[in-house]
Amino acid sequence: MTQVETTLRGPSGFSLARQALVEMESAGVWPTPLNFELWLHYLGAPDSPLGAEMKRLIEEHEPFTESVAERLAAEFLPRGRLSEEIRDAGAVLNRELSTVSQAIASAQESQRAYGQTLAEASDKFIPDAEPVALKAVVDGLSSATAKVREENAVLERRLEASVKEVSRLREHLEQVRRDALTDALTGLANRKAFDEALDAACDEQDETGAPMTLAVIDIDHFKRFNDTWGHQTGDQVLRYVASVLARIGRTPRVAARYGGEEFAVIFPGELSGMVEAELNAAREEIASRQLRRRSTNDELGAITVSAGIAQRLPGESAQSLIDRADSALYASKRAGRNRVTNARAISHKAA
């Protein structure tokens, strides 16, 4: 997730959005979804490559047409670059398939010609044929065999090269897929990856009947910390919390950045009591560290996190599970923060 996307998931996102609309109206740019996204990134990160290009266009009074917007999105926005990667991979794959098809067609033609040569040679093999005639037939067969052998060798080489290229392409696309499902700031799974993993975990539980627990974690007073020390230091805090959660979120668990300063961890096959103990250990580890600002070495003090956990009920929807975990998180906040609340305890109190 970029810095702009992080900003938009907080209170300061509203002022950035309002500024984008004002600037777009001043420049005579229509507030289409794509234009709005481009201007948000331009104003939120003016020193970025996109910011520099947008500034150039504005200073030189170049028309901000739809084609210009599409070019900027394809070149600079993460989703645009991903689309370019996929299109490029498709072009390479089409080229390889075309090469292989041509090689196979050539080999098939050689095989047909070779079959015709064999048929003609059979007709010429008569009992009283002269040695000279037989030699001519044998020479023809030898030449045809050599030609077919060479065609087959060419086909093998092309197939081998194509297999290597397709293998490289598969690895590249797998990396693109991983990048598309990874939060750029923290290295954890992003929201899309989390949604997919949670649906898969729910399906698995429905099939096997094994338990599954979801935890939602939020950094306490993060906005105040961000406003005091700035977004770069705030990013440092996000990465630190993510590093702790990454250790407990190893496969088959899934740790994700849910949005802004909120995280989530999926615990397939685990009861909420076990998860509660492990999250409390992580919470204590996070609170025990005295953070320092990297740029100035200023002491930032300690940070704390609050968490809510919910064990999935049989047949429960993913959204209902998230809602119960969120309710447990809010209970932790109301109770003074820096604690883990089990949704089961809330249910018992309500009962």
Automatic annotation (TrEMBL):
<dbReference type="InterPro" id="IPR000160">
    <property type="entry name" value="GGDEF_dom"/>
</dbReference>
<dbReference type="Pfam" id="PF00990">
    <property type="entry name" value="GGDEF"/>
</dbReference>
<keyword id="KW-0175">Coiled coil</keyword>
<feature type="coiled-coil region">
    <location>
        <begin position="152"/>
        <end position="179"/>
    </location>
</feature>
<protein>
    <recommendedName>
        <fullName>diguanylate cyclase</fullName>
        <ecNumber>2.7.7.65</ecNumber>
    </recommendedName>
</protein>
<dbReference type="InterPro" id="IPR029787">
    <property type="entry name" value="Nucleotide_cyclase"/>
</dbReference>
<dbReference type="InterPro" id="IPR050469">
    <property type="entry name" value="Diguanylate_Cyclase"/>
</dbReference>
<dbReference type="InterPro" id="IPR043128">
    <property type="entry name" value="Rev_trsase/Diguanyl_cyclase"/>
</dbReference>
<feature type="domain" description="GGDEF">
    <location>
        <begin position="210"/>
        <end position="345"/>
    </location>
</feature>
